[in-house]
Write a structure and sequence with these properties.
Helix 4 (about 95-100) links the parallel strand 5 and strand 6 (about 105-110). The protein folds into two domains: about 1-150, 3-Layer(aba) Sandwich (Alpha/beta knot); about 175-210, tRNA(m1g37)methyltransferase, domain 2 (Trp Operon Repressor, Chain A), CATH 1.10.1270.20. The strands form three sheets. Strands 2-1-6-5-7 form a five-stranded parallel beta sheet. It has a two-stranded antiparallel ribbon with strand order 3-4. The protein is of the alpha/beta class and about 210 residues long. The protein is built from six helices and nine strands. The relative contact order is 0.16. It binds S-adenosylmethionine.
């Protein structure tokens, strides 16, 4: 999967996407990350990307011309890519949505900044996605959260022991049961007896019961 991110702050992405599983996914050529600097599409000598909102109000909005030009540039690399706009007004990201997106061939993700963006960009966007009911300063962290949740679901990214099939929300609602590792006793807290019993039937029953809590 090729993931192209349109952002004013490409440097924010490397430390996150070039670490651990997200890096391994790239190393295994299961995913490719490309950063498109919105500033490169800014207008005039000063490469302007923002302007004040019509109708008044605080803050600045990303202008439509650089946004359209950046998306068109990304589409030239990949005309079938799904275009996603990060916005608190979008559909809230869920595991089911991430699973669906992990089956896409390619993605283009637009990160808003300042007070947001000129609404006309929505006309060339396939999905508007929010990471929750709170407001961050920009779409970069939301985009990284979306990328992390999508990339780890691409077949071959996680090892068998990390199978995404038995995780929290893999069926849309159920959360994972509590897990323990060595030592058996730590600061006076013991691992539940049943997990030490070797009785797989009882362990499965206990785990199922725990998921109801
Ligand atoms: N004025 C906007 C509002 O009230 O909805 C908030 C703009 S926010 C400061 C700037 C950008 O950050 C947004 O355009 C969006 O790209 C991104 N952003 C902030 N919070 C987000 C969230 N919860 N989910 C997705 N993107 C978010």
């Amino acid at each position: 999967m090729k993931i192209q991110v349109i952002t004013l702050f490409p440097e924010m992405f490397k430390p996150v996407l070039e670490t651990s599983m997200l890096f391994k996914a790239k190393d295994k050529k299961l995913v490719e990350y490309l950063y498109i600097n919105l500033r490169d599409f800014g207008l005039g000598n000063r490469k302007t990307v923002d302007d004040t909102p019509y109708g008044g109000g605080d803050g600045m909005l990303l202008k439509p011309e650089p946004l359209f030009a950046a998306v068109e540039y990304a589409k030239e690399q990949d005309s079938k890519a799904k275009v996603i706009l990060m916005t608190p007004r979008g559909k809230t990201l869920t595991q089911a949505m991430s699973k669906k997106l992990s089956k896409e061939k390619d993605l283009i993700i637009i990160c808003g900044r300042y007070e947001g963006y000129d609404e006309r960009i929505a006309s060339i966007v396939d999905e508007q996605v929010s990471i929750g009911e709170y407001v961050l300063t920009g779409g970069e962290l939301p985009a990284m959260i979306l990328i992390d949740s999508v990339v780890r679901l691409i077949p071959g990214v996680l090892g068998g022991e990390n199978s995404a099939e038995i995780e929290s929300f893999s069926d849309g609602k159920t959360k994972e049961f509590p897990q323990y590792t060595r030592p058996e006793k730590f600061k006076g807290m013991k691992v539940p007896e049943v997990l030490l019993s070797g009785n797989h039937g009882e362990i499965a029953k206990w785990r199922k019961n725990q998921q109801k809590n």
